[in-house]
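Hi L.,

You mentioned the student needs an example of a multi-chain input paired with its predicted structure. This one should do, with 718 residues in total across all chains.
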Amino acid sequence: MLPPMTPPKKQAPGASPAAVSMADLARELGVSMTTVSRALSDHHSIGAATKQRVLKLAKKLNYQPNHLAAALRKGQSRLLGVVVPYIEGKFFPSVIQGIEQAASKAGFSVIVCQSHEDVQLERRNVETLLNAQVAGVLVSVARNTLDYHHFDKVRSRGVPLVFFDRTPATELVNSVVLNDREGAFQVTHHLLEQGCRRIAHLSGPPHLNIYQHRRQGYLDALAAFGIAPDEELIIISDMTTEDGAHAMRQLLTLPNPVDAVFAAGDSAILGALQVLKGQRIRVPQDVALAGFSNEGFTAITEPQLTSVDQRCEEMGQAAVRLFLELAVAPDAPLTQRQVVLQPELFVRESSRQGQAQGR
Amino acid sequence: MLPPMTPPKKQAPGASPAAVSMADLARELGVSMTTVSRALSDHHSIGAATKQRVLKLAKKLNYQPNHLAAALRKGQSRLLGVVVPYIEGKFFPSVIQGIEQAASKAGFSVIVCQSHEDVQLERRNVETLLNAQVAGVLVSVARNTLDYHHFDKVRSRGVPLVFFDRTPATELVNSVVLNDREGAFQVTHHLLEQGCRRIAHLSGPPHLNIYQHRRQGYLDALAAFGIAPDEELIIISDMTTEDGAHAMRQLLTLPNPVDAVFAAGDSAILGALQVLKGQRIRVPQDVALAGFSNEGFTAITEPQLTSVDQRCEEMGQAAVRLFLELAVAPDAPLTQRQVVLQPELFVRESSRQGQAQGR
DNA sequence: TTGTACGCGTTATCAG
DNA sequence: CTGATAACGCGTACAA
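Structure written out for the whole complex:
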């Protein structure tokens, strides 16, 4: 009595017609799955001839490896999870661009999640990524993230965790950051060189490292010129365009007027610019302006806005490199590694006083 | 002598400490894995009491389902793959925002890939997504995509495929698009109403549906005013800012000058604006301008730029809805469904002629 | 160099 | 209502 012969090929109900698996190749060639596996993964114990046969048939049948199965088997996928606050503007897209580039070079794909500046969502994003068995997690934290316990799970699962740009100040973490203090120093120093002496500073949520450091750089530069800081001139907000406008209006009510404003973000300085123009106050002659991030629109406004470039692509690439280093050595539990990138000042019209007033 | 107590838990070498699985729950409760599975997936054949016991322990041990295993078993994940040309600017981030919103509401996570306007990369992105066993693929094609064979695999695997914004004109596909023709008609009609009679049009790669339709809308409006189109006034490029500037310079050399320019994209109209301002040509008095996409910077330039809003979030949401419909009925092989969204014209300073010249 | 056998965590099928 | 068992596709000790 002959065996049924036909049934071995099973079809998922109503789905995926024809997904060629290693077993198919093995059967077709009359070899074992092990051999096929080795041929495809370029293992050493494999005859050159059989290897070629396997690869050829794989190409012919258009074999596609099922990464899910491999990930399940190894407990590790070739996916890299990224969590950012948002993807509007120039900064995060550019960082992601750098991440994708470096990741794909190393054979990883990238999942991007947005927290929309919300810890709740950030927490869920992290869960999602862990459930997807990502090989690593790259994070720039949300504005209102104060508690970092949701990242403990990542580490406790042995998944490399790298923060970039916005990092927990209080925790021992691996991170890639810009030298925000230096950038803020440079831009403030530049304003001082232009003759400005009463410089306001628009800062963001104080618990975020980036705003702390930018503020410190601002203070450093003032100190370098022997100028005592005036708390009245430091205004804290969420740094939206509207916040910047509001802050500017507030500054204009001061009896002793400011001659420059340095905002820790470009959106805020844009808001300030709009208020000044609405009141026919000249920029930079009456008030010089400078921002931070070198957003695309800084070259569009009139006058164009001076700003600090954050080396976005480099930051993404560095984050991936750091991840790769951690991935090969998952032993050291608290290797606090920190990569610091140097900012670049872009001087534009909004802060150039012309030689008449120079210095 | 006390027993070792420890060993039953097996540890992957140097990785994932403690990932509690269904088997653990089953052993702990003295029931079968099947029961646990049913309790967790809210199956009908399950006693209310046991169900509660399982759920309680699951919470207590912080059980996290391994989606990979489920996806492998079912041949379907809860991941949605998205391929876009790029994520800079406002449009695609906003669409993605809409996608994420609708997807997460339906219990799906989203993977975003960029093709960087390159078919090669687009092809690889699609492969990556299929290998990740995504439940669906949402695509806006690259500028130089003329051949669509790489999408055949998606359909042949029974994975729902939805195009949005940029869709193959020649193929039978499911898609969500803006009524580009209507949008272009509205904006051109508006320029005509303002008194403009010699209106140039900056268009993009002709094989892309969006540019075809915008151009057609432009022609429709001219026809409605009884104006014969002038081929000399239609300039085709890749629609970058530089392209727009170049086109504007070219238009300025014409013996018979234009009194308006409508570009099928905001970057191009920005370039045109910069050239005009460089030459002290007044906007809108001498030349009126209008763009398409309602990018963020259109409200920043001086004068602010008239543009057509593309309903980005709605587009993303509609794409997900369409995907969900296809997902429940994977039978109909060529259900060409098309969702068309209505654009919205934002009239700003660059096209407002003031009542003096009106009409 | 090649093959055998097992397990990763889940779900579907069938039998009790 | 519950349980045993067999897959899903791949990698890897171990044996041959």
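You could point out the following to them. Residues 10, 12, 19, 21-23, 33-34, 37-38, 41, 65-66, 68-74 of chain A lie near DNA strand D (CB under 10 Å from a C1'). The radius of gyration of chain A is 27 Å.

Best wishes,
N.
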